[in-house]
Amino acid sequence: MKIIDTYRRASATAGGDPRVLARMAAARTRGILRGHAGVKIGPGVRLSGPGTYLLHPGSSIKKDCRLYVGPGATLEMQRGSNLGARTIVNVAKSLVLEQDARVSWQVQLLDTDFHTIVDDAGDSRPGTAPVHIGRRALIGTGSMILKGVTVGAGAVVGAGSVVTRDVLPGAVVAGNPARVVGTVRDWR
Question: CB neighbours of 71 closer than 8 A, spacing ≥ 6?
Fold first, then answer.
C-alpha cells in the first residue's frame, strides 16, 4: 500500500507526465544506489572524499553538484533540505543544512580557506570552521557562504552575496560582503 500511495503522490506532483515521473524515479534510484535511500540525487552529481555524508531521507541534490567531504569531516543534510544545480560544497570540518533549508543554483558552501594564513605576529589563523544553515533558510543563486558562518532559521541570503559573518534568524542579507538589508517573516 505504501508504494501505491508514493506513486499517487509522485503522479500528482508530476501532473501525470510520464517523463517527469521517470526523472523523479531516476533521482531516487541514484540515491539508493549510492547508499542514501530516500534522497533524490540528480544526474552528474559527484560525491567524493573520505568523510561522512549524513543525507537524510527527503533531502535532495540537484544535477551537476560537486561535493567533497574531507577526512574526519561531516556533511549533514536534514529532511527537506536542498542543494541547487551546479552547487559546490567543500567540507573540511562540518557543514549542516537543517530541515527545509534551500540552497539555490551555483552556490559555494565552504568551511575552509584551503590554506593557512599567518598574521604579522607569526600566528596562524584557523583555516577551517563549521558552517551551519538554519531551518528554512534560503541561499540565493551565486552566493558564497564562507567558513565559520551560521545562517539563522528563516534567513534569506540575496543572490550573489558573499557571507563572511553570521546571519541572524529572519534577516535578509545581500552584497559583498553581505550586510543586513531587511527582515523576513517567511518566504515561498
Answer: 49, 50, 51
Q: Which three cell numbers stand for residue 4?
A: 501505491
Neighbours of 115 (CB within 10 A): 6
pTM: 0.84
Q: Which three cell numbers stand for residue 125?
A: 589563523
> Torsion over CA of 92, 98, 100 and 104, rounded to 10 degrees?
-30
Selection from 44, 47, 80 nearest residue 62 by Cα:
44
Low-confidence residues of the chain, pLDDT below 70? 1-16, 20-21, 23-24, 26-31, 33-34
* CA-based end-to-end distance of the chain: 32
pLDDT digits (tens, 9 = 90+) for 36-90: 889 999 999 999 999 999 999 999 999 999 999 999 999 999 999 999 999 999 9
Helices (H) and strands (E) in the chain, counts: 2, 19
Burial of 6 (C-beta count, 10 Å sphere; 0-12/13-18/19+): exposed
